[in-house]
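Ops channel
N.P.: pipeline sanity check, posting one input/output pair.
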């Protein structure tokens, strides 16, 4: 799944006009200036989806996509999501990659580098429209000994500050994926907790797939409704897999290994990743295809990137069941619960709220966690 980092592009658009000569000397100003110009270009090229849906000159595929997105928007609004002006227009960005998202973390700790911004607070990634800037920033972290990941992103949300268009990079022929994406991005307008990136993105995953399930069911398409439910199931499977991997790595890093033991332990964890993905994860998922996996050393930055969307997913499922399996009621109640929350308060409040009920979440089909890998040099995976 493509990453969907939320950028402070509205700030860039406001500030870029006043930078003047500072643009030539400040990397931060150049970064914000480029972001502002890209956002302006995206908005300038935007076309109303309603016109595309009714345009006989548009291809059948374009009309179908436009009609689906508009219908999903309407459904989102009907169940209490803050659709606002998100995805009322379409913009062709003219390339297959919208931007690159950079994450960084120390090698001996799953502790992502945090970028601090106004309004949204701290976030563990930074988006770049400029490939050269992205590669330079990554090289600077690597020179300091960090794990890094630079990955493509297909879409982003400005949290309702702008009329976010549907971008050409985010369009999918898979109607379940497209509907889930629309619900996901609109969910960010509905609930956003400052400095709580993992909570926000994991919530949007839940809100996206569960809303898509209900949307297709309401239109009598049980096949697609079940597919959306199965994808949400698979997200929870992957969430548990990452929980187990993080527990293993936390144990390794907590032992304060020397450099040789650290690398050996990370390599052993990579072997565990291979065995686990090809084992119970492959046997448990319903929609994801997991082929042969190459054993590799762990990259903490990459782990941070994928976990952002899969943190404590079982809490959201428990909250969903606590509210009768009604995603509209669940999201509305969660929005109220999160009023005034910041950072780690978000998950703390959700955990406390879920713990006060006797809600039973269906167990995931998992096997017991294997022992933590040895940190001895040359050690392989444990049996």
């Amino acid at each position: 799944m493509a990453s969907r980092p939320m950028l402070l592009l509205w700030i860039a658009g406001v500030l870029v006009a006043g930078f003047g000569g500072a643009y030539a000397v400040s990397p931060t100003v150049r970064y914000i200036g480029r972001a502002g110009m890209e956002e302006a270009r995206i908005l300038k090229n935007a076309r109303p989806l309603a016109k595309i849906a009714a345009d006989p000159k548009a291809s059948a595929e374009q009309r179908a996509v436009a009609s689906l997105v508009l219908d999903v928007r309407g459904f989102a609004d009907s169940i209490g999501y803050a659709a606002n002006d998100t995805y009322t227009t379409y913009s062709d960005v003219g390339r297959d990659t919208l931007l690159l998202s950079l994450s960084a973390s120390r090698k001996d700790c799953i502790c992502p580098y945090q970028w601090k911004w106004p309004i949204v607070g701290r976030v563990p990634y930074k988006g770049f429209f400029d490939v050269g800037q992205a590669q330079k920033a990554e090289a600077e972290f690597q020179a300091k000994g960090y794990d890094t990941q630079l990955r493509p992103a297909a879409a982003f949300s400005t949290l309702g500050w702008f009329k976010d268009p549907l971008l050409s990079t985010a369009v999918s022929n898979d109607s379940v994926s497209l509907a889930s994406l629309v619900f996901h991005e609109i969910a960010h307008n509905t609930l956003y907790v400052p400095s709580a990136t993992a909570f926000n993105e994991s919530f949007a995953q839940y809100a996206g797939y569960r809303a898509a399930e209900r949307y297709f069911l309401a239109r009598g398409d049980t096949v697609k409704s079940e597919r959306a439910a199965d994808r949400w199931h698979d997200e929870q499977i992957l969430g548990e897999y990452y929980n187990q991997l993080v527990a293993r790595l936390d144990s390794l890093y907590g032992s304060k290994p020397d450099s040789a033991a650290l690398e050996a332990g990370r390599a052993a964890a990579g072997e565990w990743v291979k065995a686990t993905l090809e084992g119970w994860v492959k046997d448990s998922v319903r929609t994801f295809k997991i082929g042969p996996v190459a054993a590799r050393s762990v990259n903490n930055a990459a782990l941070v990137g994928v976990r952002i969307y899969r943190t404590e997913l079982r809490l959201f499922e428990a909250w969903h069941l606590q509210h009768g399996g009604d995603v509209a009621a669940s999201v509305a109640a969660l929005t109220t619960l999160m009023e005034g929350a910041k950072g780690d308060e978000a998950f703390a409040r959700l955990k406390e709220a879920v713990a006060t009920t006797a809600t039973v979440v269906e167990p995931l089909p998992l096997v017991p966690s294997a022992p933590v890998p040895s940190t001895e040099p040359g050690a392989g995976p444990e049996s």
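N.P.: looks fine end to end. The chain is about 50% helix and 10% strand.
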